[in-house]
């Protein structure tokens, strides 16, 4: 099986490289309005943002920044199939302007924007960001009432395009083989994720040519691989196409390759494509390690569950292990065996240049136990 991965250097407010109804899932993280690291970018997109910030009008700046994101959300409604899911990772911002401190609730504004475009909101996820400093508390130390709660969480907002679920052909193998284990379901479909910096992240950055992972994340605001990896497993099937309109360093594409889905991305900054070139060489090793780690964790779960006196009703078809539910029987992991760059994708007025990759997949190789 092969998957294709296209990346356009261009402005996602116009996704003209992506056809109507051609994407089954969106996984993305926009620049967060009112977080200072993105001020210049928003001013580039709309100079009136700069005027609002300079005059200390936080509300107006917040609205002007979201108006730029709204134009991307308009495009998502067009390219996403009916019943396709959009997952938007976003955090709120705290900021003082003209000596006035407040929170800018990005999650609420994005939720409103999607709902008004005909998306149905689904229950969302909170994930906890790393927090390691006692100096993080804002405001007046230990005196009431002017200290402020520290934001240590981000949202993954979830929406369905329209009010109808996606349909699959009866007994679609690509859906049944993309099943996840019961115990994974229990962790992934919980509404608070506390361990997203976990195992996958360490594996992900083994392949970063020794680069400093946290430094990369600081410069690009890259999210942990585990976030798009889980979301893709949760909300799409093998062979689907995943779009990230705010592609950054391509973490979503990395996850799409590892999960056997196609992907397409838009990114304004061409330098991030170079970062991705370094990351992509590690994909075969990464996809194999992730698949094997999932199987190992499942075997550990089986051992523990048996030790607790519970039994299993079903056997997996492709692996020597029992499973809890009938739906898991056909679960089948894949690994990437090769990734090749595609020729540059044709430029248009809106898209200056682009690139792409072809990934070849095979069933996960599992060492004899
Ligand atoms: C929060 S970062 C995404 C990081 C990404 N999830 C990753 O893991 O590397 C947002 C990205 O969107 C890009 N961006 C912002 N506005 C854009 C637009 N209108 N069109 C395309 N890309 C945009 C920024 O350059 C930045 O790389």
Task: Please tell me about this protein's structure.
The chain is α/β, with parallel strands linked by helices. The chain has one domain (2-133, 149-363): Rossmann fold, CATH 3.40.50. The chain is 35% helix and 26% strand. The chain has helices at 39-45, 48-54, 58-79, 106-116, 173-176, 182-188, 199-206, 213-220, 226-235, 251-259, 271-280, 283-307, and strands spanning 2-10, 23-28, 80-90, 93-97, 100-104, 119-128, 138-139, 147-148, 153-161, 192-193, 241-244, 262-267, 314-315, 322-323, 334-342, 351-363. It has a ten-stranded mixed beta sheet with strand order 10-6-9-3-2-11-12-1-16-15, with helices on both faces. Strand 7 (138-139) and strand 8 form a beta hairpin. The site of S-adenosylmethionine has 20 residues, from strand 12.
Characteristic terms for this protein:
369 residues, alpha/beta, Rossmann fold, 10-stranded mixed β-sheet, 12 helices, binds S-adenosylmethionine, S-adenosyl-L-methionine, DNA-binding, methyltransferase, SAM-dependent_MTases_sf, RM_Methyltransferase
